[in-house]
TrEMBL record:
UniProt GO MF annotations: transmembrane transporter activity
Residue ranges occupied by any Major facilitator superfamily (MFS) profile domain in the UniProt entry: 1-341
Protein name as catalogued: MFS general substrate transporter
Principal subcellular localisation of the protein: membrane
Subcellular location(s) per record: Membrane
GO cellular component, as recorded: membrane
InterPro entries registered for this protein in UniProt: MFS, MFS_dom, MFS_trans_sf
PANTHER family: PERMEASE-RELATED, TRANSPORTER, PUTATIVE (AFU_ORTHOLOGUE AFUA_6G08340)-RELATED
Organism superkingdom: Eukaryota
Gene3D superfamilies recorded: MFS general substrate transporter like domains
Amino acid sequence: MVSWGIAATCMAAVSSFPGLLVARFFLGALEAGSFPGYIYYYSFWYRQHEQAARIALFFSMASVAGAFSGLLASAISFLNGTGGLQGWRWIFIQGLPTIIIGILVWFYLPNFPQTETKWLTDRERYIAINRLPPTAPSHTQKHFEWSEFKKTILNPWTWVFNVAFLCCLCPLYSVSYFNPTIIKNLGYTSYIAQLMTVPPYVAAFVWTIGLSISSDRRRERAFHIIASFLVGIVGFGMQLGLDANTGAKYFGVFLATMGPFGTIPIMMAFRTKTMRGSATSAAISTAAMVSTGSIGSLVSPFLYPNWAGPQYVFGTIINLVLYGIGIVCLLVLHFVYRGVEEGILVEEEDEASVEKQ
């Protein structure tokens, strides 16, 4: 957090396009390990059927950030010229709070239940440790093993997960990058268009939390992800098929935003449950899925070129096709790991006896 906060803040000082590219490269490189690291961290503390809701609370801050980014962009646009800085430079100065919070996290975020003495009593530590299944990663395991790395990367189901996650992230980046442009093409003026991006992100926040809680309670992953895919399909379909009805097309923006955001936490929880064995496998499988999915951030900007507006037929069709591929991947993974889903109930009985003790 500290390092990429510094990189983000430095982007406010660039004076040339090559300088911007260098700063952006370091920002991406320093941030890359954060999200899979967060998911790996959860596996040390929470049982599998508790993870989706917790990941959703964490990940939904992205949709909250998306909502506030529209508000902040509108407000910061009025700072243009203040202190001799253009408005876009003030946007990157927002990296300063990230640096401060990163320093606080170093001191206050607990590490492992096995070693935590500041926040937990001995009894609470006993429960936190023994409620986890035997397959959960442990801090006592080796940090990295080449054999487990190769085994995980060469597993064909690893790549089915990776492709499915790419099908989640490409639509997500599409709406993140281009919602303001799409909304502006509905007839709203520039700063009003920024403000109109806020309600879809609020809806995405509610949808993501609710769907993830349902997934945890029902002990089911694949069909909840598919349900969110279907919401996204309807949203992109409405954007593609509607011309004049601004209200209906704006509602399509809601659905197109809710769809991809709702898939991410459940995909991460699904993936962590399927990994049994060493800490290396758990860490690498999550990192491989996130890194493959991040290809969507490279692809999405090219799906919505200016000449394709206002319908953006090409990009919308690509996202619809990706959703279809994602549904096929999820159906395959559901049947491959059906026994894993059923095994949650058996583990839950063992964990309940520990809590009673």
